[in-house]
Amino acid sequence: MHFTYLPSKLAIVFFAAVSLLARADDSYRIVHTYPHDPHAYTQGLVYIDGHLYESTGLNGQSSLRMDDLTTGRVLQKSLLAERYFGEGLAAWGSTLVQLTWQAHVAFVYDRFSFRLLRTFHYSGEGWGLTADNRYLILSDGTARIRFFDPATFREVRHIEVTDQGQPVTELNELEYIHGQIWANVWHTDRIARIAPTNGHVLGWIDLAGLLPNNERSDPEAVLNGIAYDAAHDRLFVTGKLWPKLFEIKVVPAQRAK
Prior knowledge:
Residues 1-21 have low confidence and may be disordered. The chain is mainly beta. The strands form 6 sheets. A 4-stranded antiparallel β-sheet has the order 1-22-21-20, with no helix packed on it. The protein has a single domain (26-251), classed as 6 Propeller (Neuraminidase), CATH 2.120.10. The relative contact order is 0.17. It has one helix spanning 8-22, and strands at residues 27-35, 42-48, 51-56, 63-67, 74-79, 86-92, 95-100, 105-110, 116-121, 129-131, 136-139, 144-148, 155-160, 162-163, 166-167, 171-177, 180-185, 190-194, 201-206, 223-229, 234-239, 244-251. The protein starts with 7 loop residues before the first helix and ends in a 6-residue tail after the last strand. It is globular, with a radius of gyration of 19 Å.
């Protein structure tokens, strides 16, 4: 391959464009479609030990739920007080941890009875929540993702999420999958795959067309729900006010050579 001389600034733009073309988004194929409560304003989704758990939002409608995957029926439900707007959800041992949006408080429940065990407070907003084998991992709508000690609920460290040097904000629902943090980006059909060590975006998954626009009942009926069944390597996604929940397989993009 031969290149002609380019002035330094133009060369930088050229090679940046080549880099962007080389990293195409991954896509998906639908494995199975399940019913989902179209009134559920989904903010958090977790699949563990054969059960699907969900956190829903909106003041006066926020809840913690256990859903039947096959039928979409709500099997167990606990409502939050009207002053709370439910957000992200994560499993930790035998507990479930649920964030709230602007109340700076999280609730820790017994996973089996939904009995409230304790609360903890944090600064900033609560958006998404997940966990690795050491920390609770929280997003707050900025490019920052924070790591909390589950025993003390003390912030241990944080990362700034960037894609090719640019900050990625409005990171919403989170899931920890194969050593990466997967994050919905609010008001988009894309999921970012983030390195938990340094915040670099490793790639994107484009879920455009998963739920057609004519099946979305509201402008806020956006993609926002990722759950991973680690025991059977199954990936589930849904959205706020979506009538369907999807099991999908990620299809890697064809990389430029």
